[in-house]
Amino acid sequence: MGKDESMGRIVKKAQEKRKEIFLIAQDLFFKYGNANTSVQIIIDELGISKGAFYHYFNSKIELLDCISDLLTSDIISKIKPIVNNTDLNAIEKLNKLYTVTSNYKTQNLDIIYTITKALFKKENLFLRHNLNNKLIEKTIPLMTRIFQQGIDEAVFKIDTPMVMTRIILLFGISRAEHNAKLLLQNKDDPDSLEDLSEYLALYQLSVERMLGAPEDSIQAFDKNFINNVKQKLNDLHV
Q1: Domain 1-57, CATH number (from 1.10.10, 3.30.200, 1.10.3470, 3.40.630)
Q2: pLDDT over threshold 70, residue 186
Q3: Exposure check for the chain: N or C terminus, fewer CB within 10 A?
């Protein structure tokens, strides 16, 4: 066996072990909460030593960062092609971004519900806060490009696209947290989610006005979104 081949196997084995620790820890965080999941609990579950754990992760905080990175990377990978699409104008890009993220949530509602339920445990406040921050910081440069394009095309009337991006993303996170609470409270009664339409419509109008965009140009949610979510929840109960 050559030196390069041997090193390759060592690296692969290390990556697999790191992934194993990561997945077990993620399950424990979701089940018991970040605050109640110590490094000792993780290593007991894995049957490894503390030294082995710290060989792969410097701290529990680093491990939590890795979980946040993974949970945000999938949605970011779907946003990038939209931003890079030179055939779309700024409004088309923004509307497509909203459509893609809405469809992603609907199609993966069962997984998202499980994750949301875990994140809204009081013991996971740090993890949820960290996840929201990661999502905002990764999205800012992408959405800023859309807003700058809108300025260049004279369809957005804003002076500082990066500042406006952060404001709208923070606004969106607040809306998403409220929607998540409604989802958790009404999972067994999908028809009661009808009130979400009012919140989403108000959010859409607010974003349009904040950008100074033409009237009725921003489509922040599909009008069928609520019905799709309700149908998905009903399917999960079957």
Answers
A1: 1.10.10
A2: no
A3: C
